[in-house]
Amino acid sequence: MQKVLISEYVRKLRKESGLSANEFAKLHGVSHSQIAKYEDGKLDNPSLAVASKFCKNFDMTPDEFLGKIKCNNEVINNTSNFISSVEHLMSGNYLNDFSKDVGQFFEKYKEQFGFAAYEKTTNTLPMDETVVVPMNGIITKGNKPILVSYFPYRKVPYDRSPFKYYSDLNTALGSIYLNADLKKNINFLFMTPSYEAYKYFADRNYRQISDQNIIIIYYKYRRDIEYTLITGKDFLK
């Protein structure tokens, strides 16, 4: 694939989407003025912070950025430094508006899955102080809510298990299994843009809980979704 400038990439992506500038900006959870900066070429030689934000806005890993985006920045052209620095910045709280990704998922699949409404939230599950389940969005289907927990991409070394790098996902699952107060037929959707993490947790054998519904889903913008029922009923059907 031939590398292109950020401005070329964004203009092409918006044209392919068939959306207006405002609609395109809303889809990616950024302002109209930010999209204009991208398209006008003002950010074609980005700093590490700008590159990190771009990766977040357009759901790219640092590796994908290096393979797709052309720029004349010596800091970015230092591959190993760029990847480690951007991963560090992307894990920072100021970039982690995971509700944006949940909102994108809602907009893209609301007709297919029959979603009725979406509410942005950044709380933990308000059940018990011992429960560690982040909530990055609440999607309503019929008259029942789906509590969405988003677990961001983390680079896992090829010889390591995702278990350590996605300990928060494992902790959230464990909290649901171990806390009796949660057994109220709640619909949980665990979402991650990491296919590696998704497969690791989806392929494990979990004890079935008759009155609890948990699904793990791989969702990444412009990629086909894949999901697995961990326990209970498939509430996405």
Fraction of residues in H or I helices:
40-55%
Give a short account of the largest sheet: 6 strands, mixed
**Mean model confidence by pLDDT:** 85
Strand order of the largest sheet: 1-2-3-4-5-6
Radius of gyration, in Å, reads 19 Å
Principal-axis shape:
globular
Q: Estimate what percentage of residues fall within beta strands.
A: 5-15%
Structural class: alpha/beta
Instruction: Spell the H/E element sequence.
Output: HHHHHHHHEEEHHEHEE
**Low-confidence sequence ranges:** none
Total strands: the figure is 6
Assembly form of the protein: single chain
N- and C-termini, Cα separation? 37 Å
Helical segment tally? 11
Give a verbal description of the structure:
Helices cover about 40% and strands about 15% of the residues. With about 240 residues, the chain is α/β, with parallel strands linked by helices. β4, α11 (about 195-200) and β5 (about 215-220) form a beta-alpha-beta unit.
